[in-house]
Design a protein that fits this description.
The chain is α+β, with helices and mostly antiparallel strands. Helix content is about 30%, strand content about 40%. It has six helices and eight strands.
Length: about 220
């Protein structure tokens, strides 16, 4: 093989609109007592109230997890009565229930919505399908180009692929903007500022360098 062989370079893109299959809600809730880990779900009053509302909206308790707890105390003393901020993840598997889940969130006091991560199940398998489709398109084009130039393809010099449309969380504003007062709660039950069903264009882009030589 020569260091710089004759090549035909082809770029191909395959995309598809995909629907989210689920969502992870990340919340911060202020509490007037301090508990660590999953114990907060059973013992912190404010978290208990939120969890009860979420279960009523169709979320199972196993899909509610405490991600972290930050403590606020006076004079450096830590007691069970110290106030705390609990960061929770709420996993919603059925997007048909998402409006009810969001309603349960807005009905609770001292809640901050941090972000929503949309989940796309089966995406890895889809990406493999898109990759193979892109390779097939490139190979057919390469054969036609080589034939038209009286060349033949003798191998692949280089293959590159990148993903298109990597998902990013739906971000919300500052703590002051996100904390829901009673008036804001009434507004948020109607418009949370984020779509309840999320779709996005995803796909792959390939670059294939085919080695060619004269027939």
């Amino acid at each position: 093989m020569t260091e710089h062989p004759d090549r035909v370079v082809l770029h191909e893109t395959v995309t598809e609109e995909v629907q989210a299959s689920g969502a992870d809600l990340y919340l911060t809730i202020k509490g007037n007592s301090f508990f660590t880990g999953q114990a907060a779900i059973k013992k912190a009053k404010e978290v208990q109230q939120l969890v009860a509302g979420l279960i009523g909206a169709g979320v199972i308790e196993e899909d509610i997890s405490v991600q972290s707890v930050s403590l606020s105390s006076e004079k450096g003393m830590v007691t069970k009565s110290s106030s705390a901020k609990y960061k929770l993840r709420v996993r919603c598997h059925n997007l048909d229930k998402l409006p009810d889940v969001l309603g349960a969130v807005t009905a609770s006091n001292n809640i901050i919505m941090d972000n929503i991560d949309w989940r796309y199940d089966g995406l890895e398998a889809k990406e493999n399908e898109w990759m193979m489709e892109a390779i097939g398109k490139s190979s057919r084009r390469a054969e036609k180009i080589a034939s038209g130039l009286a060349l033949k393809i003798v191998g692949v010099h280089e293959f590159r692929m990148r993903k298109i449309g990597e998902a990013s969380p739906e971000q919300f504003g500052s703590d002051a903007d996100r904390e829901w007062s009673p008036r804001m709660k009434m507004m948020r039950t109607v418009d949370l500022g984020t779509p309840l069903i999320q779709s996005t264009e995803r796909g792959v882009a390939t670059t294939i360098e085919y080695r060619v030589q004269k027939e």
